[in-house]
Amino acid sequence: MGIRQALSSVGLQTTSHAFIPDEGDDLGVNILAIQRGPHYDTENDRILVICANYDTEEDSPGIDDNGSGVAAVLETARVMTGLDRLYKRNNTIIYAFFDMKQQIFPTAARELHEHNHMGDFIQLIGRVNRDDTVVQQ
Q1: Which has the higher per-residue pLDDT, 47 or 125?
Q2: Which domains does the chain show, CATH number per domain?
């Protein structure tokens, strides 16, 4: 089962963003799924981004860089969508899977801002990157 299918199986719709990085000619595709909060697409929305890169380096074991991160984000999406039936959630959650991390990851927050159609309303409250388990607020 691929990333899109796993997200779809828990009720999330995905969008894709294809790009060619400045440093090369290869096509990359980022995958996003949005679990909308009650204030989605308003100035009161607060957004948590949970992300991992799904590509790997040629000489790297893909299970660690970054199959484990992808699995963690997918499991988080499964659990969080299930909890929506039990608890009120106040924030929007974006599940992001980045391609070509080495070329574009530093600009990933800008990418999310441009691609999620929320314009100036985005209020990023945190990012969890499952590659190096970094939490920023």
Answers
A1: 47
A2: 3-136 (3.40.630.10)
